[in-house]
Design a protein that fits this description.
alpha/beta, 25% helix
C-alpha cells in the first residue's frame, strides 16, 4: 500500500500541477490510500473517497483547516462538579453579571462554573436613581444576569430592568434574567375586587426591557410562567434539600413532612414521596390580613418526630 505525503500549499504551487494527474490515477486504478502523516485522520480510497472527519476539510487563505478534537472521552464538566480551569473572559461567549441583591450567590455560581463575573458598574444617585454601566463588551454573547428580587424588592427589580436594558443596548446576543427569588409572584390572581395582578405586570416589564429568557426557582405558582411571552426555565430546589436531609441520616419512621397551609398540600405530598413516602401533617390557619395568620388546627401526628416544613415562600416566618 503506497502513501503520498501532501505538503503545505505554501511550499510550492508547482507540486500540485505536476502531481495532480498522477495522484488521481493512483487513486482510481490502484485504490491506494492518501494519508496525512502529520494527522491522525486518514482518507481511504476504494470505489470512492471516504472521509473520517466530522466535516469536509475547508481551505481558508490557501491553508487546509482541520478540526481539532478533544482527547477527552467525557466533557470536563461531567468529570468534576466544578470546572477547574477558568475560562478566558475576553474570549468567552458566555458572560455572567451580578446585581447588588446577592453578590455572594453570584460569586458561588461563577466559581462553580469556572467563570469570572463580568465587570459592571452599579451605583445610586443622591435621589435614589440607579446607574448601570457594563465595563466589558458583550456583543454577540449569551449574557446571564443574576439578580433576585429580595428586599428591597422594588429597588432590586428596577436594577434588574436597567441591567437588561444595558445589555440589550450593548448588542448582547441573548439575555437571560436569573431570578432565584421572583418577587410579586404571590399576586398571581385576583382574590378580591379591584386588585392588581402584579405578577403579570412584572413579567411584562422584564420582557419589554429586552430579556430573551427567564430562569426562576420555585415559583409561587406554576401559572406565573404563562404570564411571560418569553421562555421560562422553572427549576426546583427539592433535590438539594433532599440531599441535605439524606446526609443527616434521619430514620424514615421519625420524619414527618408538614404543609404550612392547605394550599401547599400538593407540594408537601410530592416532597414526602421522595422521603420514602413519609407521613404528612397539615397546618390549618386563618389569615386576617397580609402577613397576619393564626393557627387553628394541626392535622396529623408530629409528636416526637422531626418535622420538615415545606413552603415556597418565607416572608415573616410567623413573626
Amino acid at each position: 500500500m503506497a502513501a503520498l505525503r501532501v505538503p503545505s500549499p505554501s511550499k510550492s504551487s508547482s507540486f500540485w500541477s505536476s502531481s495532480s494527474s498522477s495522484f488521481f490515477s493512483r487513486c482510481s486504478l490502484g485504490h491506494k490510500t492518501l494519508a496525512f502523516n502529520e494527522s491522525r485522520f486518514r482518507i481511504c480510497a476504494s470505489n470512492s473517497f471516504k472521509c473520517d472527519l466530522p466535516r469536509s476539510v475547508n481551505y481558508g487563505n490557501g491553508k487546509p483547516t482541520i478540526p481539532i478534537l478533544n482527547e477527552r472521552t467525557l466533557p470536563k464538566f461531567l468529570e468534576s462538579a466544578r470546572m477547574e480551569t477558568t475560562v478566558n473572559r475576553n474570549g468567552a461567549k458566555l458572560k455572567l453579571f451580578s446585581g447588588t441583591a446577592n453578590p455572594a450567590l453570584s460569586q458561588e455560581i461563577a466559581w462553580y462554573m469556572g467563570l469570572e463575573l463580568g465587570k459592571i458598574n452599579i451605583k445610586r444617585f443622591a435621589d435614589g436613581e440607579i446607574y448601570v454601566q457594563l465595563q466589558e463588551s458583550v456583543r454577540g454573547c449569551d449574557v446571564y444576569l443574576i439578580q433576585p428580587t429580595c428586599p428591597p424588592a422594588n429597588e432590586n427589580l428596577m436594577e434588574l430592568l436597567i441591567m437588561v436594558d444595558a445589555c440589550r443596548r450593548a448588542s448582547a446576543k441573548n439575555i437571560t434574567a436569573v431570578i432565584p427569588y421572583f418577587g410579586y409572584a404571590r399576586a398571581d390572581r385576583k382574590t378580591q375586587g379591584r386588585e392588581s395582578i402584579a405578577a403579570k405586570l412584572v413579567a411584562n416589564l422584564i420582557t419589554e426591557a429586552g430579556a430573551n429568557r427567564v430562569l426562576a426557582c420555585d415559583l409561587h405558582s406554576g401559572q406565573s410562567m404563562g404570564y411571560f411571552d418569553i421562555p421560562v426555565d422553572h427549576v426546583y430546589c427539592q433535590p438539594v434539600i433532599l440531599d441535605y436531609l439524606a446526609s443527616k441520616t434521619i430514620c424514615s419512621d421519625d420524619l414527618v413532612v408538614v404543609s404550612p397551609d392547605v394550599g401547599g398540600v400538593a407540594r408537601a405530598r410530592a416532597f414526602a414521596k421522595k422521603l420514602s413516602d413519609a407521613p404528612l401533617a397539615i397546618v390549618d390557619k386563618r389569615r386576617h390580613g397580609h402577613n397576619v395568620a393564626e393557627v387553628m388546627n394541626l392535622i396529623g401526628d408530629v409528636k416526637g418526630k422531626v418535622a420538615v416544613v415545606v413552603d415556597d415562600m418565607i416572608d415573616t416566618a410567623g413573626e
